[in-house]
Design a protein that fits this description.
heterodimer; A: alpha+beta; Ubiquitin-like (UB roll); B: about 475 residues; alpha/beta; 4-stranded antiparallel beta sheet; 18 strands; about 30% helix; globular
């Protein structure tokens, strides 16, 4: 089971506010009463979470669709 | 229609109007059950229940109950922005509902196309919207069926398909028809069946599965032969159970479809749910159908012989001792809100259900475009009602071939809140269960707004797409306006 959804490319991003590189850290996402925990690129200082396009249009969209449809 | 029925309907109407809390909620259009003239219709309440009332100058007033008690009628809404079907096979000449095909005034695309591949049946049910019987007109040939698939493909390429009838399994070329549908590009093909042949022939389910059948829409009215005798004229329970077992073994998803009739099987709603969960994952869901009075039916059309959507939802809560709750169910995103309800659940390791969406969360209060709702429904139905094995060969590739139900099922219930994306998808795809229901319309409660929002369309002999309730509509003398014409 893959729990780390941060790719090496994601970690080349810097947090705009803190000006430091993102690192892999725990994040909790809640949608329609369902909680998902994953390792994502986060700013180690302010905790800002980066969601890559691949994740947003991939598995995250799939989860959203399952919860929303019908 | 007998005079007794007419008098009863008028009597009910007068009683409603006499209530101090009587008020008109909204207006729509309907037809006179006797002369089929288009007339205004009103959704009215007596303070508790909701009725569709209409008055024909020639044939009097009619009132049919459409909603009883809670969940509240006025809160049961899911607004949609109408969309015109991209391909319309008919032009407007007489107006709705006489030009179905669809026409440009229709407000929803096709999510499911029904192909009636035979009018013959091996049962002679007391209630049958198709009025099917043993000796009926000859079956359409393969060329005609290919033409129907082509017409659906042109008008609604991504729709789901239901093979219906009559009893489709009476055709020895059913597997071939399923293959033709798959080759035409339809990903989800479901068989609407009474299940008798599935029980009688050991390898029949496997052959249909091999041809590409994903699911059976399985007539299943209860767990007592008394119910089958009352509704189907025969003791059928043993055969039903065997057919379910064989479909499950073959990997065909089973959707139990109980027709619910007051005085006959309302009390069995809880036991049907209990049975379905026992048969999970072979049984993927239940789809309740409150009785409607079109086609062949007993001459007892009065409001006491109707059951409405909120009553089925309430019965689900009370008869499951609160395992499912009324608040777990929502109006549909595809068809008109008054046509159906649905609830999405997860089967937990103890065999009980947990709602997938928590009570207070909602993403859906804003109007959505009708075709977006339809597309979501197409995907959702195909995902939920297919056999689990079928899913795992497609969507299941994303879960690395692991056995979600064994592995994840051993987790404690609260742990599902701590899953990652893959774990969540795996769990939902392998442990989801749906409870839904659809209230069809007959000539007495026909609401043309609902009809225009319909997404389930029967293919006519000449390849038009007719909303299901229009196709099956019969007047007070049981004469159809579309079927067989």
């Amino acid at each position: 089971m893959k729990n780390n959804y941060a790719s090496p490319e994601d970690l080349r991003w810097k947090c705009y506010k803190c000006n430091i590189f993102l690192s892999v850290g725990p994040a909790t996402l809640i949608y329609m009463g369902n909680k998902i925990k994953a390792q994502l690129p986060v700013c180690p200082q302010c905790g800002f979470v980066f969601i890559s396009e691949e994740l947003a249009l991939g598995k995250m969209a799939e989860v959203e669709q399952i919860l929303e449809d019908k | 229609m007998s005079k007794t029925v007419l008098i009863r309907l008028i009597h009910v109407a007068m009683k409603t109007e006499a209530s101090p809390e009587y008020r008109v909620l909204s207006q729509t259009e309907s037809l006179c059950p006797v002369c089929l003239e288009k007339i205004p219709a009103f959704r009215v309440t007596d303070g508790c229940d909701v009725y569709l009332e209409k008055h024909c100058e020639s044939h009097g007033k009619f009132s049919a109950v459409i909603w009883r008690k809670d969940p509240s009628f006025e809160k049961w809404v899911k607004p949609k922005v109408p969309v015109q079907p991209p391909v319309c096979y008919s032009e407007i000449t007489k107006g709705c509902p006489f030009d179905c095909g669809l026409c440009v005034l229709h407000r929803q695309i096709t999510c499911t196309a029904l192909l009636e591949i035979t009018q013959r049946c091996n049962l002679n049910c007391k209630y049958c919207f198709a009025s099917s019987e043993k000796s009926a007109v000859s079956d359409p040939d393969i060329k005609t069926i290919e033409f129907w698939f082509k017409r659906v493909k042109e008008a609604a390429p991504s729709s789901n398909i239901q093979l219906s009838g009559g009893e489709p399994s009476l055709r020895d070329d059913l597997s071939q028809i399923v293959e033709i549908g798959r080759q035409a590009g339809f990903g989800f093909i479901q068989l609407n069946t009474n299940g008798l042949r599935l029980a009688e022939e050991e390898d029949y389910a496997a052959r249909l599965k091999e041809a590409g059948l994903a699911s059976v829409f399985f007539q299943f009215d209860g767990l007592s032969d008394k119910t089958y005798l009352a509704l189907r004229g025969q003791k059928l329970l043993a055969k039903k159970l065997l057919a379910i077992e064989r479909c499950a073994k073959a990997g065909i998803g089973v959707v139990l479809v109980p027709m619910i009739v007051p005085g006959i099987n309302v009390h069995e709603i809880g036991s049907i749910l209990e049975f379905a969960l026992k048969e999970y994952p072979g049984v993927r869901g239940i789809h309740f159908q409150p009785v409607s009075y079109f086609g062949r039916h007993p001459e007892n059309i009065d409001n006491n012989n109707r059951i409405t959507i909120p009553e089925i939802i309430t019965a689900l809560e009370t008869q499951s001792n609160g395992m499912v709750r009324a608040s777990d169910f929502r109006p549909p995103g595809c068809e008109n809100a008054l046509c159906s309800f649905n609830g999405k659940f997860l089967v937990m390791s103890g065999g009980h259900l947990k709602p997938l969406i928590s009570e207070n969360s909602s993403c859906c209060n804003k109007p959505i475009k009708a075709d977006i709702g339809a597309r979501q429904s197409i995907t959702s139905v195909a995902r939920q009602w297919s056999g689990i094995r079928a899913q795992r060969s497609g969507i299941g590739d994303q879960v690395d071939g692991c056995h979600g139900s064994e592995r994840v099922g051993q987790k404690k219930e609260e742990e599902i809140c701590d899953m990652d994306f893959d774990g969540f998808l795996d769990f939902v795809l392998t442990r989801s269960f749906s409870i839904s229901g659809m209230a069809f319309q007959d000539i007495w409660n026909l609401d043309l707004e609902r009809l225009k929002d319909c997404c389930i369309h029967t293919v006519s002999n000449d390849g038009r797409l007719i909303p299901f309730c229009a196709y099956n509509l019969t007047d007070s003398q049981n004469i159809p306006i579309y079927r067989g014409r």
